[in-house]
Write a structure and sequence with these properties.
49% of the residues lie in helices and 8% in strands. It is of the alpha+beta class and 773 residues long. It has 5 domains: 136 residues, no CATH class; 78 residues; 125 residues, no CATH class; 206 residues, hpI Integrase, Chain A (Orthogonal Bundle); 134 residues, no CATH class. The protein has 36 helices and 17 strands. A hairpin with a 6-residue loop joins strand 7 and strand 8.
Length: 773
């Protein structure tokens, strides 16, 4: 028999502890039909072959004995349906078809290939019935599968289309052991949150696994067999994504090892276009570095670009030990002028941007990776220390000037709508994953965690069961019951080890705590899963069906769902709304609140290792900055208003051009006609020179009485002494008068020469201290 891709699993399972019901080795299994056997099959024909009353002593039946006896034995070991009489007739029909096929192929079924068996069974009952009309074809297919499985070792089930796998397993193994195996798997998966509506698919998958392993006992499964099934393309075609859960369930029963973490590729692609010596150094560094695997992979790509640049620009340099300060300077210049796609091994995903200049941030990262590479090689003493990577490969100042933190805060109106959508989440809003809907309590907890916790998506995905605690006045309390909020309880969230530091605890809104507790109350028990950051097995809060919610779930499912419900676009002027933008938005709002957090308080709440990082998030909003500027009163502190009377008649008559006074400044006790009043040193303590017009005079009264006068406010900047005179009253004014006693007035004489220092009336102070009512 020729094995197929699916049948290779049977080779690994050949040592099954379950005994095979038929002793295949006791039959004569020559590979060709004799002339006598061919004559016997032709003389009997289909009708006699499927007849229940046989004359086994006749020559034709004696001729095909070695073909008919195994079929009779296979019938005897089948577990029959209660309607045995009809089932036996169907089995005889299948045996007759099988023998007729032997005559057509001139080969006994022992020598059939998988394709020979599949050609007889067909891809459906309709196809078989077209070849063999009547009740023969319509009823024989299930038993053809049973004969093929028992006698021919046929497991190429992907070649025969759809069929009822549980029926085949029950006919071969018996109903009780099959149902027992299905029940064990079903109970474990149901406890993990698998939906009951997928039970039919689960039953078919478990029976498929049992048939391929040639045993109804779960104990006979092995890690190798299950791993082979997970890698079988036929499994992905008929049971996409479900094999992982079955493997986890068998492992939970203590029968096999848990499945390995999903593998998304066969490792990084081989480096091409770079010198072989340089490639060996890069691979050696990649195998030794302790950076995270994803980070190491990114470094490897950039280091490969460096190798291709060397091959093109400096072919004489093939190893890191040959680099000099001049080589480093050339690389810095090359990075500064580099474009997208330059020195790349592949342009996948970059074709639309090929030729565009690299962003300043990308250029800086290229230089940072080169510094790290040479620093490691020097510290590990793999190459001699010929230069300082931190200096010769540093980011140029012109490039650093173009780089700055850019936490993209979401606008207040959009963020308010997203909050409303999250607080009013309903079951109809839930996103579908692989055709299944996660529990609404879990989705609501994830959503509110994103909206209120200010944590990174990776930290949200790695939250542990029991991460919420309650306190009141520093004393731990239970979170059960509505009385908690009435007692002003504080909700504390335990954040796991994260990007920049160790685990820590932070206060969050009680709404978030209640949502998490609601999910924990109904969360099905899940197996412990490996935390890739810490290397420990933990009970993740957001896990269902033995799988942890991926860190990309918020970006791919939660945010689009909230945008649809809130009626807002998924992108704004700052770009696409992502999970990390919520962290920036919350930090900015806390820093600009009516009672804002200090920088160090916000640092602790965000979990930053340095306040410098927090400063990137603590953006002062324009509204806050405007309020602060207005409250500072910069303009009001330096400018006071004074009423000025304009004599438009004097202006119209041309008297102003002749030097006649045309504007008069109201001093309260009189008017000043000096044109450059704002430059007069005596403006706040008038000495009553020739430009002074007492209000008691008829001239001043006439000026105020003119109907065509316009009253305007003139802004006059004040010195510190003048401002103090206005603010501090008569004491400061007296000091000002003493200092100005010998300063000439615009008319020429000093105040001392004008007889006496005049007293300033109180109305002037009132006018100068602010605009008139």
């Amino acid at each position: 028999m020729t094995a197929t891709s699916s049948a290779t699993v049977n080779i690994a399972a050949a040592s099954s502890a379950w005994p095979w019901p038929i002793a295949l080795g006791c039959y004569p299994r020559q590979g060709q039909l004799s002339v006598i056997e061919m004559d016997g099959l032709r003389s009997l024909g289909l009708d006699l072959l499927r007849c229940g009353d046989r004359d086994l002593s006749s020559a034709p039946w004696r001729a095909i004995r070695r073909l008919a006896q195994p079929l009779d034995d296979a019938q005897s070991v089948l577990h029959w349906h209660p309607d045995t009489r009809h089932q036996r007739r169907f089995a005889r029909n299948a045996a007759a078809l099988l023998l007729m096929r032997c005559a057509a192929l001139s080969r006994p079924y022992w020598a059939w290939s998988a394709q020979d068996w599949a050609g007889l069974i067909g891809t459906g009952a309709g196809e078989l019935q077209q070849s063999w009309p009547g009740q023969v074809g319509s009823s024989a297919r299930p038993y053809l599968l049973a004969y093929a499985y028992l006698l021919g070792g046929f497991t190429a089930f992907d070649r025969v289309g759809r069929f009822h796998r549980r029926s085949l397993a029950c006919r071969v193994f018996g109903k009780e052991p099959v149902d027992d195996a299905i029940g064990q798997i079903r109970d474990v998966l149901a406890g993990w949150g698998y939906h009951r509506r997928s039970e039919r698919d689960l039953t078919a998958l478990v029976c498929h696994v049992l048939l391929l392993n040639r045993s109804p006992r779960l104990e006979d499964l092995s890690s190798e067999v299950l791993a082979g099934l997970r890698g079988d393309p036929a499994m992905g075609q008929y049971f996409p994504g479900d094999m992982h859960g079955v493997h986890r369930a068998v492992a939970a029963l203590g029968l096999v090892e848990p499945p390995a973490a999903p593998k998304y590729g066969d490792g990084p692609a081989a480096i091409t276009g770079a010198p072989d010596a340089w490639t060996r150094w890069v691979e050696r560094w990649h195998a030794t570095s302790t950076l995270a695997p994803i980070t190491r992979g990114i470094y490897r790509v950039v280091l490969a670009k460096m190798g291709r640049w060397l091959a093109e620009e400096h072919p004489e340099i093939t190893e890191p030990s040959q680099w000099t300060r001049q080589t480093c300077a050339a690389w810095v210049a090359a990075v500064d002028r580099m474009a997208v796609g330059d020195y790349s091994q592949s342009l996948n995903g970059k074709r639309g941007r090929a030729g565009d200049p690299l962003s300043p941030k990308t250029k800086s990262s290229y230089l940072r990776m080169a510094r790290a590479f040479f620093r490691d090689l020097q510290e590990w003493e793999w190459i001699p220390r010929r230069f300082d990577p931190a200096r010769v490969l540093s980011t140029p100042r012109s490039l650093r000037a173009l780089i700055g933190p850019d936490p993209r805060v979401i606008a207040d109106d959009i963020w308010a709508k997203l909050l409303w959508a999250g607080l009013n989440l309903e079951a109809a809003d839930l996103p579908r994953a692989d055709g299944r809907v996660h529990p609404v309590e879990m989705i609501r907890a994830i959503t509110l965690t994103w909206l209120f916790s200010g944590q990174r998506s990776d930290e949200i995905a790695r939250l542990r069961v029991g991460c919420v605690r309650w306190q009141h006045d520093g004393i731990p309390i239970s979170g059960d019951g509505d009385q908690v909020l009435a007692r002003d309880a504080v909700c504390l969230l335990d954040v796991p080890v994260h990007k920049t530091g160790a685990a820590f605890t932070k206060p969050v809104d009680p709404l978030l705590g209640k949502a998490i507790e609601a999910w924990q109350a109904m969360r099905p028990d899940q197996p412990k899963m490996l935390d890739p950051k810490t290397g420990e097995r933990a009970e993740f809060l957001f896990a269902i069906r033995a799988k942890r919610v991926a860190k990309h779930y918020i970006n791919e499912r939660i945010i689009p769902m909230l945008c649809r419900k809130a009626g807002v676009p998924a992108s704004d002027v700052r770009g696409k709304i992502t999970s990390h933008r919520a962290r920036s938005t919350i930090a900015s709002q806390l820093y600009n609140a009516k009672e804002p957090m200090t920088l160090f308080e916000l640092q602790a709440w965000l979990g930053h290792a340095s306040p410098e990082t927090t400063q990137h998030y603590a953006k002062i909003t324009p509204n806050t900055l405007t309020r602060a500027y207005q409250d500072a009163g910069y303009f009001e502190r330096n400018v006071r208003t004074i009423e000025v009377l304009l004599d438009r008649d004097a202006v119209a008559a041309g008297q102003s051009a002749a030097g006649e006074p045309w504007q008069h400044y109201d001093l309260g006790h009189g008017l000043c006609s000096y044109t450059f009043f704002e430059q007069c040193q005596h403006r706040m303590a008038c000495a009553k020179c020739d430009f002074y017009i007492p209000k008691s005079s008829s001239r001043a009264q006439l000026l105020e009485a003119k109907a065509n006068l316009q009253r305007m406010l003139v802004a006059i900047p004040l010195t510190d002494d003048e401002r103090a005179a206005v603010d501090d009253g008569q004491a400061a004014l007296g000091k000002l008068l003493e200092r100005l006693a010998d300063i000439p007035t615009p008319a020429g004489p000093t105040p001392r020469q004008l007889a006496t220092i005049p007293a300033v009336e109180l109305p002037l102070l009132q006018i100068l201290s602010g605009p008139p009512a």
